[in-house]
Amino acid sequence: MHDRRFYTVLIGVVFAAFANHAIADDIFVGKFASLPSKFPPLEANAAELYIAPKGDKYVVTEFSKGEFKLDYLATRCDSKKDLSMPLLASGEIFALCAAESGFARFVYSQNGIDERDPRINVLKDRNEASYLREQYYMPPFFAFRRVDSFKYAPNDPIKLLSHETSEFAALCREVGVKLLEKPVAPVRSIAYDFDPKRISSWLHYWRVEVDGDGRILGLGGFSKLNSIEATKKASFEFTERRAGDGAGAATINPSAPYYRFPAGRQPYYGVDELGADVLAFLDVDKPDEYRKAPISQSAIRYQITLTDRRSGAVLGVQTYVVDQLNHRACGVNVDSVISPSAFIFDAINR
């Protein structure tokens, strides 16, 4: 009886795998390894791709020399096709595009790369014939070979490839914005400060854009045209910072502990104490991690406390987490963006 039940379950699993054509017959689902290449700067087996289905999209995870590099959501874009595809590909071609940007990121060419393309003569000269015949590549020349199909994987490949650590998930509890007291009067100036015994600068990035799964899409940059974020930009008569925090020595009173930056093109100058209406104070849970180069930082929990210096009242607190090492962030407060600027705007305009 036990054996009969086992075979019934096994047949059901196999049948389900074949029934799911999106997975079983999908040319893009699997593990792909880059081919050894003499073509600089590519190195032998330097890159691996893991592509797993997620609804009507794909999760593409890239590793370089065995270390996680990045991951992103992708969609099929066979009809769109990058301009370089017809020139490089031979036979029918299919493509994956990054879901956010729409750019072609991974291509399947029915008959490999077209060796007649004049742009790849340098590869032919280097005796890379096997490289040219591969069906999978990243435009223009980075070829891959499928090494694992994932077709009947016993575990969910999405979970296997997840880079949201338990620490990150714990840090992401109770993130976001809390608006508290209102300003006692209109806010015309702001100071940005921190404890120099813990950290040495204010924020590296003023905005972090993420997708629906918390993957970092961009650090810094500008708000999108006609977005809600674009409307939340406060203007100030002047701002203040600690001397040495993002600016060279002032020409006036350069040895002062703080610098004042007037609006417009007026020169900034040193001041002996802060005089702004409100104070945005930054702290992090891991000062040692924050001192690393941004690209090497693992999960850090940021907290910005905005205080009205005229009354001492706390106007609001913003808390968020950024893990640049694993390309994750949480604590979105406007559109799909973590924006201290939007937080400050909301806190002083009530």
Describe the structure.
The chain is α+β, with helices and mostly antiparallel strands and 350 residues long. It folds into 2 domains: 2-159, no CATH class; 166-348, no CATH class. The protein has helices at residues 2-19, 21-24, 85-88, 121-125, 129-133, 157-160, 166-171, 228-231, 287-290, 340-348, and strands at residues 30-34, 47-54, 57-64, 67-76, 93-98, 104-109, 136-138, 142-148, 176-179, 189-194, 208-210, 216-219, 238-242, 258-262, 269-271, 278-284, 300-308, 314-323, 328-330, 337-338.
Key phrases:
disordered N terminus; 9-stranded mixed sheet; alpha+beta; 18% helix; 10 helices
Average residue pLDDT: 82
The 3D shape can be described as: elongated
* Low-pLDDT residue spans: 1-22
Largest sheet: 9 strands, mixed
Total beta strand runs: 20
Overall number of domains = 2
With helices defined by DSSP (H or I, 4 residues minimum), what is the helix count?
Answer: 10
Structural class of the secondary elements? alpha+beta
H and E order: HHEEEEHEEHHEEHHEEEEHEEEEHEEEEH
C-alpha end-to-end distance: 71 Å
Share of residues in strands: 25-35%
Helical content (DSSP H or I, runs of 4+): 10-25%
Gyration radius, to the nearest Å? 26 Å
